[in-house]
Each structure stands twice: as C-alpha cells, then as structure tokens.
Amino acid sequence: MSSQNSIVKQTRRIRSGFSMVEVLISLVISATLLTATLGALDGSFKAYKVTTEGASTNVVARIVMQRLTAMIRTGDSFGPYPVNPILTPNLESNWIEFVSYRDPSTSTEKVTRLERRDGPVGEGPYELWYVLSTYVSGALEDEVEAPLLVNLNNVVFTMDYDVGPRLKRVTVDLIIQPDDLQDVAIGSRLEAPTIRLVASASPRSND
Known about the structure:
Elements: H1 2-16, H2 20-73, E1 76-79, E2 90-93, E3 95-103, E4 108-119, E5 122-136, E6 139-162, E7 166-176, H3 182-185, E8 195-201
Antiparallel strand pairs: 1-3, 2-6, 3-4, 4-5, 5-6, 6-7, 7-8
C-alpha cells in the first residue's frame, strides 16, 4: 500500500511541472511581446527625434531670417540689377549683395554678399553663405565668409526695383530640410516635413 502511495505522489510531482511544449509556447509569447515593446520604443524614439530636429531647425532658420532682413534694411547699393527696371522690375536670384558699411573719410567700403552654394555632394542640398568683402580705395583688402544655413532645398531672393534702379523691397524665400535624420529614415517611414520661411524687408535708405 505504501508503495502505491509513493507512486501516486511521484506521478503528481511529474504532472505539476511544465511540459516542453508549454515552455516553448511561453518563450514564443515572451519573445513576441518583447519585440512589440522594442518596436514601439524605437518608433517613439524616432518620432521624438524627428520632432526635436524639426523644432531646432525651425528656431535656427528664424534667427537667420531675422538677421538677413536686418542686414537688408541697413544695406545700400543692392545688386544684381535688372536690365530694364521699367519693363522687368522684379528680379529673382540665388544671391544678393549690397554695401553694408561706407566711410568716405577713409575710402573704406564693406560689401555683404548672401549666396546659395552647392552642398558638399554637389547639387542639393544647398547651403546659404555669408561673404563680407572689405575694400579700401576700390581695392580688395580682406574677405571673410561663413555658412549661415545648410541642408537647404532652395533659397530665392526676389528683388522689386523702381526706376534708378532703386530697390523697393526684397523677399527672402527659404526652404529647409531638417538635417541629421538619415539614420531615422532607415527602416521607417518617418520623414521630417520641410520648413518654409518667407519674409520681406525694405532698405531704410529708400524711405
């Protein structure tokens, strides 16, 4: 009788454990849940990065736009000039230049040039560069240049001239693509929206 009880106890002990099939099923369920969780975390991280990158690019672009309009307001003797300001008073260009400083007593003149340049890999994305040339008695003495914005889809300066030619207004149109998002786009459909900023300014010397 005792031997039969011990056999029943052993059978109950064996049956109280998990079978191999149950262990495999639980592993598959756990792996599926972990994969879904990691996928959700990865998607949240990429969406956060797209949002923050777009916001930071927007802030930088607005600061640059304010600087551009401020330089245009205080500039003088703008170029390029239209061939005939009466027939074609509006001129679109990917560069603009103007006199930003003039001292007749020392014959010193500083010319600021804002221009679109090709990026490191050739055409597009473009870069917006700032070039400051210093002339003394008409001779170039010094030149400083630096990039203002990178990863531009396009930049257009629309100049509205009057007879003279007298510049009445400049409209700056910037289209920027938030950068540093190539790794985010890999394996996902996330794309940061392009940012477009348009602003107009009139030279104060024409007031």
